[in-house]
Amino acid sequence: MPTPKQMEKLAAEASRKPGPLAAAPDAPLPAEYWESVLNDPRAGATGAQIRQRRLSEIQRHVLRIGCRRCERTLEIQTADAIRLYGRKAVWKDVAQRLLDNTCQQRTGRHEEDGCWPAFE
Fold first, then answer.
1. Whether the Cβ atoms of residue 120 and residue 75 lie closer than 8 Å to each other
2. Residue 15 lies in a domain
3. b/e per residue 5-21 (b: at least 16 CB within 10 A)
4. Going by DSSP bridges, is the β-strand pair 73-77/62-67 parallel, antiparallel, or unpaired?
5. How many separate domains does the chain show?
6. 67 close to 118: Cβ distance less than 8 angstroms
7. DSSP structure class, residue 22
8. Which domain holds residue 104?
9. pLDDT of 23
10. Residues in a beta bridge with 84
């Protein structure tokens, strides 16, 4: 723990040094920011593209699907999904099967039965 004299000295030095300038709220963002955003692997894929991917093409460790009807959320590891459904299975089909296997909203009518997937 610094002594009070050392703390005063550090405070005096800090007040003399110019700190990093904060950008104005309406200032344009630096080019490095945009490069990192565009280089992010999630930047190129929309939700519809991810749904149509085969399980072997998905880089995520955990796949998550929710139901808009009963607000239930299911998660499965990508490795487990590949083991159960195969490498060539499409994520949209696997997610619908997972929801249907555990659906609790059964009315008896085919048009109304089942969960409504919300891909996350």
1. no
2. no
3. eeeeeeeeeeeeeeeee
4. antiparallel
5. 1
6. yes
7. P
8. 47-120
9. 64
10. none
**Strand pairing report for 117-119 and 73-77:** unpaired
Domain annotation covers residue 77: yes
Helix, strand, coil percentages in the chain from 3-state DSSP, rounded to 5: 40, 15, 45
Confidence of residue 59 (pLDDT cuts 50, 70, 90): confident
Which tokens belong to 70?
A: 């009963």
Decide if 105 contacts 114 (C-beta within 8 A).
Answer: yes
Token representation of residue 89:
């299975």
42 located within any domain: no
- CA 40/CA 8 separation, integer angstroms: 44
Q: Locate 109 and state its tokens.
A: 């009518």
User: Whole-angstrom Cα distance, residue 92 to residue 64?
Assistant: 11
If DSSP codes are grouped into helix, strand and coil, which group holds residue 11?
A: helix
Say if pTM beats, i.e. exceeds, 0.90: no
Query: Which residue type occupies 76?
Result: I
